[in-house]
Amino acid sequence: MSMKVLFVSNLYPDVAETGRGLYNARLVQHLGRLCAMRVLSPRPVLPFCTKVQRQPRLEDAGFAPVYAPAWRIPRIGSRWNPRLMAWSLKPAFEKLRSEFAFEAVLVSWVYPDACAVARLAAQYRFPFVAVAQGSDVHQYLRQPVRRRLIVQALNQAKAVVARSAELARLLREAGVAAQRVHVIYNGVDTTVFKPGNREQERARLGLPLEARVVLYVGNFLPIKNPLLLVAAFAELKKRFAGFQTRLVMLGDGPLEESIKRCADSAGIAGDLVMPGRKPENEVARYMQAADVLAVPSNNEGLPNVVLEAFATGLPVVATSVGGIPEVMPESAPYLGRLVGAGNVAEMAAALEHVLQQERHTEMIVRHARAFSWESTAAAYLELLTVR
């Protein structure tokens, strides 16, 4: 009889937010081939709200996701929000416990999710494994109250998964017991992200065949620094005078209008393509059509978009932050270039270099094969089952 595991995270998709926690959903799907899985996804609401209206995506229906209200006090509630979440989740939690009789909990996002699960684990006496994704560590460990709660909760966990060695280092330095922390990288779906026909995809997407195409995939948020990429692309365009260029930015977010204004003032509005947020299969096609992926972030865990680019054979220019250098070693220059965060000139120069060098598609794809969802899921299951 296979093990029963309950997955808990506010980062999990539904029909209204199909891109929310997409990699968590991918992990659940692959773990679900190795053990029995159910999903509990807390959704932040004000205290005493008792319902949330969410519907699972068709591909997640087999895990019967429960979208439950998680009480939260905005801005001033850091000290109390884990307790409020634990309290408000009790009805859904007890119902799942009765129906599913799970043996362990896998919780992704350290605050408040893992902190709340730690409180429930102390009451109901079940083991749990916590997952640190990136921003939850980079941002919340800087806040004394949250830092204390996070370290306390993670030291109660059976194990803690960090999605990069850099995240693992930060957790250990914060006070999480070193023996509890394990590095497990996310996987890549190589049935979706694979090399394609560049000419066909450009024709389909309406991109000029001869253009140098720089691709960005992500949220338009300050921490992702998309405005730096716009400035770097403007500099790059000067260096490629007489050649067609395009900057394709997939995603959405609060900086969308700022990106357009910045492009207009830099004189590159005609080269900017913003198709919005796209599903995975469309992202893969843009990668197959592009010449380079740019990741200008100020901070990261280990963005899956880098591994997905490699799986399509696309080189990457990225800031040397978080876990990115771990998958772009100096010994493999064909993967692209690393640059300092916040440096427009470096980003422009690195993009120019990659666009001018010979592309080694097969070598890049071979590098990506080390990151499979099958091996990732097996590593998680081992942590969940070890006594």
Overview of the molecule:
- With 387 residues, this protein is α/β, with parallel strands linked by helices.
- The protein has 2 domains: 4-187 and 373-385, Glycogen Phosphorylase B (Rossmann fold, 3-Layer(aba) Sandwich), CATH 3.40.50.2000; 198-368, Rossmann fold.
- The chain has 15 helices and 13 strands.
- It has helices at residues 22-31, 81-100, 110-124, 135-138, 144-154, 165-174, 198-205, 226-239, 256-265, 280-289, 304-312, 324-327, 344-356, 361-368, 373-385, and strands at residues 4-8, 36-45, 66-71, 104-108, 128-132, 159-162, 181-183, 212-217, 245-250, 272-276, 292-295, 316-319, 336-339.
- A 7-stranded parallel β-sheet has the order 3-2-1-4-5-6-7, with helices on both faces. Strands 10-9-8-11-12-13 form a 6-stranded parallel β-sheet, sandwiched between helices.
- Helix 3 packs across helix 5 and helix 7 (198-205) packs across helix 10.
- The model has no long low-confidence stretch (mean pLDDT 95).
What value does the Rg take, in angstroms? 21 Å
By CATH, the superfamily of the largest domain comes out as: Glycogen Phosphorylase B
Order of helices and strands: EHEEHEHEHHEHEHEHEHEHEHEHEHHH
Structural class: alpha/beta
Query: What is the CATH C-level name of the largest domain?
Result: Alpha Beta
What is the makeup of the main sheet? Answer: 7 strands, parallel
What is the CATH architecture term of the largest domain? 3-Layer(aba) Sandwich
Q: State the separation between the terminal residues, measured CA to CA.
A: 17 Å
Number of helices: 15
Strand content: 15-25%
